[in-house]
Amino acid sequence: MTTIDTAAARARLLEIIREKAIVHGRVTLSSGKEADYYVDLRRISLDGEAAPLVGIVMRELTKDLTYAAVGGLTLGADPVATSMLHAAAAAGERLDAFVVRKAGKAHGLQQRIEGPSIEGRRVLVVEDTTTTGASPLAAVEAAREDGAEVVAVATIADRATGAGERISAEAGVEYRYAFSLEELGLA
Questions:
Q1: Phi then psi for 176, rounded to 5 degrees?
Q2: Which has the closest alpha carbon to 73: 44, 50, 103?
Q3: What is the distance between the terminal CA atoms of the chain, rounded to a whole angstrom?
Q4: 8 — pLDDT class (breaks 50, 70, 90)
């Protein structure tokens, strides 16, 4: 088994984010707020070089936590969770992923959460970038309704707009992020 240099992975991921994911110009965020830049982390979490680094960095960020599954609100969380699943497998460990729909399905099993059952399991809620905290809060609520114990919320990039405080206050879980606005060169 190869040893992974997590510091090198983190440094390279930050470099790729700065190169490919930061778009300058006036944009309206999913929260409805306006910003002078957009951090499009799907350009990273779905990138062949960067996605494996996402898994390594996010697992390193949460290595002191115990959880059996990782996921969050579709679409931002999906590739993050999948990257973490693959990073765990590469390290010889098992980690399941799950997807939280924005609304329950009206057909089939009518599930709001897809993937292996999270009932009775410790889970980590993830996201690619966090502004208001609404998406991870919705995922925390859905996971708890499904019988999971949410250990924390973790995101790749935090926009420093109070999401962490909101998540801690409303969901009662710790909030972590891999990169700050300062590290991304946006503050």
A1: -130, 150
A2: 103
A3: 39
A4: very high
